[in-house]
Amino acid sequence: MMSLRTVAVLGAGTMGSRIAAHFANAGYPVELLDVSDSAVRQGLDAARKSRPGAFFTDSAASLIRTGTFDENLPRITECEWIVEAVVEDLAAKRALLDRVQRFRRPGAILSTNTSGIPLARISEGWPAEPRAHFLGAHFFNPPRYLHLVEIVPGADTLPEVAAWVSAFCDRRLGKGVVPCKDTPNFIANRVGGFFGATAHRLAVAGDYTVEEADSLTGPLIGLPKSATFRLVDIVGLDVWAHVLDNVYVLAPGDPARDRFAMPAFMARMMERGWLGDKRGQGFYKRVGSAKEIHAIDWKTLEYHPAQKPRFESAEAAARISDLPVRLRALVAAEDRAGQFLWPLFRDLFAYVAGIAPEISLRIVEIDRALRWGFAFQLGPFELWDALGVAQTAERMARDGTPLPPPVERMLASGARSFYAAADRDGQPGTRYFDFGAHGEALGADAWRELEPRPGILSLAAIKRARGVIETNRSASLVDLEDGVFCVEFHTRSNALDDGALSMIESGLDRTARHGQALLIANQGEQFSAGASLAPILGAAEEGDWSRIDAMLRRLQQIHMAIKYAPRPVVAAPFGSTLGAGCELVLHAVHAQASAETYMGMVEFGVGLIPAAGGIKELALRLADPKRVLDLIVSAKISSSAENARELGLLRPRDGITMNPERLLGDAKAAALALAGSHTPGTPRLAIPVESTAADEFAAWREAGRISGYDCIVAEKLAWVLSGGGSPAGQTVSEQQLLDLEREAFLSLCGQPETRERMAHMLATGKAKG
Questions:
Q1: CATH dotted code for 185-309
Q2: Residue ranges per domain, the chain?
Q3: Which of 637, 655, 719, 748 is deepest in the core (most CB within 10 A)?
Q4: CB 522 within 8 A of CB 494
């Protein structure tokens, strides 16, 4: 339809400034305007300083030009997309957008970031041309990190406009796109608001503390750590009140309208300005110089030191790794945990099935909206499947909770789940039960196949459809077809243990004999936290240096095999890519990284230096021993893939994928593109070394930048970088650098301080301060 050159974002508040930042992350110039210079400056400064960061790199902010509505609104004439993100007030939006019409050129897209005001009310009375190019594009905060964008066409929006915005958000901004009907709060806030409001009311009805409710509604049931009360502190109690009020006022026929009324104790908190993080206190606050966390008593509005709740059934269930099994155990419990969670799920199921035809074309979009916008591991209908639809329906009937008619008809047709596999001829597929536009679906013909999403691959679905070539407790080898194989890690934190390394060897061998390319990728929570520390510490405490040497040699040999494989090996890092996981990526012929890749070699924090080829690879890439020394001694972790490129951990030719769902597909495409022209290299034999690293280390020590035991560790690193103290002008081979890495690593393992740091990391998960 068109190409985007410049975007305008109107409103530099929390949402507007972060939306502008994310367009800049994607490489697009932005006009960011607000009512005054101070307002827009404060908004942009807040985005720069926010933690987690709104920008991939500091330099991305240079793509944003600021201005005011009064002086600079004519700039939008040059913009192909104008994003309205001002205060959530109908009159304010209409007043600004009326001014926009004077400068917007025909054909330019105009979107609103409203979280729930019906579009028909915003665009009422507009001429036909702007209405045809107007739609809702509702980003969730923070836009960089939350995957969801709800696309809401108006009654007159051209289909090609909605299609273009959807495709752009998917591929360029990395978003999970959910089409929505123009109903109050759309999908995610309608259902998410109900879920949160129900949890809050159950806490009051059952006399649960804030801490108890949050402990039951977080990771235990597949939700983020922010749970429910803590989530309100993050988004702001005033914003939460607006989300609830939107439904209460604009949807008078909602079957659970009273659930959206603000509880009395929250109203009292709002009167006192206790809105959450933005005001320093809400349901929680930090107290004293030690920043001790206190929680509010909702009955008295007094604070007390936050208590760790204890529920016997929850503690037992937490040890169950399989989420559906864990959920079934939790709702079956008869203690206070079960008494809270069962009605929470029961009411959610009844509500969402009842309103599904009103707010969405399919149940699929409801599940995606909750997963992508609220970070649920399972959406509402997926949760219902996990608990068992028929069993849950029977229990709801015993409770006197009416089953929504669409579900009654579904069960009467013989269907027992909302989703089912639809694999054919080794190709993965999924079908879903379609309620239809009015929830009237009947019989077996209500099943619909979920359309494939080109470019998006799911390892879980591929394995379900055609199994795996080989597997062990640590990793699997998967056939992605077209001659591309994939090594998938599934250890805890995807650590590189013996089983994972064996699977890489198998993958390299099979690819050399039968394939075109090998991927090293997975779709868990992180790429890899590195090599396992425990066996290294155990061997060090026993003085078994030959065992540590053998571990390191194996890691080094596999990484060199990856680098010089006869077929291209592509790594697809994302999330935490640390230690030996980072070193593995450095050896791949190509990296296709998720935009959210946090990459670095962090061994220095436990009194060690990288020894799986990482020092060698950085020395080759950066050609500056001082930069390598700084990167490793600081244990710097990239804040994004773009930042990893700035640091030298990714090369200019490596790819970056904005949409995490597309990472595996993009990596496969990159591997196939390399396969036809790949020529394996040979190990370097003459790498120049110099003494500048040792000189830099000495300068740091004199300046007090490093002290104590860190000096010993840094000196070992400088020794490796100088080729083991080789005279200036000498050269060393890759293998000699590997040998030096190993020698230095082993000598550090012999130091009590290093072993103490390693033990501290294993016990606490944190480096010793």
A1: 1.10.1040.10
A2: 7-179, 185-309, 311-452, 459-602+637-675, 687-764
A3: 748
A4: yes
CA–CA dist 570, 659 (Å, integer): 18
Domain 7-179 top-level CATH class: alpha beta
d(CA 683, CA 688): 14
Q: Residue 24 corresponds to which amino acid?
A: A
Under DSSP, the state recorded for 23 is H
State which fold the 459-602+637-675 domain adopts: 2-enoyl-CoA Hydratase; Chain A, domain 1 (3.90.226)
Computed from CA positions of residues 495, 646, 767, 220, in that sequence, does the dihedral angle turn out positive or negative?
Answer: negative
3-state secondary structure of 233: helix
Helix (H) or strand (E) holding 139: strand 134-139
Q: Is the peptide bond prior to 29 cis by the omega test (within 30 degrees of 0)?
A: no
3-state secondary structure of 284: strand
Dihedral angle over CA of 561, 566, 572, 577, nearest 10? 10
Question: What's the token pair of residue 620?
Answer: 């080759």
Q: CA–CA separation, 218 vs 226, rounded Å?
A: 7
Residue type, 176: G
Q: Sheet harboring 292-297: ordered strands across?
A: 284-287, 292-297, 302-305
Residue 136 CA neighbour count, 13 Å, CB half:
32
Both structure tokens of 248: 């209460």
**What is 367-392 written as a DSSP string?**
HHHHHHHH--SS-HHHHHHHH-HHHH
Q: Please choose, from the candidates 163, 129, 170, the residue with its C-alpha nearest in 3D space to the C-alpha of residue 149.
A: 170
Does 141 have pLDDT greater than 90? no
Nearest CA among 765, 760, 763, 757 for reference residue 709: 757
Where does residue 27 fall: left (phi above 0), alpha (psi -120 to 50 degrees), or beta otherwise? left
Angle formed at CA 572 by CA 569 and CA 573, multiple of 5 degrees: 130
| DSSP single-letter state for residue 402 | P
> How, if at all, do strands 81-84 and 7-10 pair?
parallel
- Round the average pLDDT of the chain to a whole number and report it: 94
Q: How far is CA 135 from CA 35, 138, 164, 179, 380, in A?
A: 23, 10, 12, 11, 27
192's CB contacts (< 8 A; 6+ apart) are 370, 373, 374
* Three-class secondary structure of residue 431 per DSSP: strand
Maximal CA-CA distance, the chain:
85
Instruction: Bin 477: left if φ > 0, else alpha if -120 < ψ < 50, else beta.
Output: beta
Instruction: Give the H/E segment covering residue 737.
Output: helix 734-749
Rounded to whole angstroms, the Cα distance separating 428 from 519 reads 19
Give the single-character DSSP code of 479.
E
Q: 232 near 295, Cβ under 8 Å?
A: no
pLDDT in tens, 689-747: 876 777 777 788 888 788 789 999 999 999 999 898 877 778 899 999 999 999 999 99
Residue 112 bridge partners (DSSP): 84, 136
Backbone angles phi, psi at 64, to 5 degrees: -100, 125
717 close to 744: Cβ distance less than 8 angstroms: yes
All residues at 6 or more sequence positions from 442 whose CB lies less than 8 Å from its CB, including other chains: 409, 413
Q: Under a CB-based contact definition with an 8 Å cutoff, are residues 569 and 589 in contact?
A: yes
**DSSP strand pairing (419-421 vs 176-179):** unpaired
Taking the model in full, what pTM does it have?
0.93
Q: Convert the pLDDT of each residue in 661-697 to its tens digit.
A: 999 999 999 999 999 899 999 999 988 887 677 777 7
Tell me the β-bridge partners of 178. 150
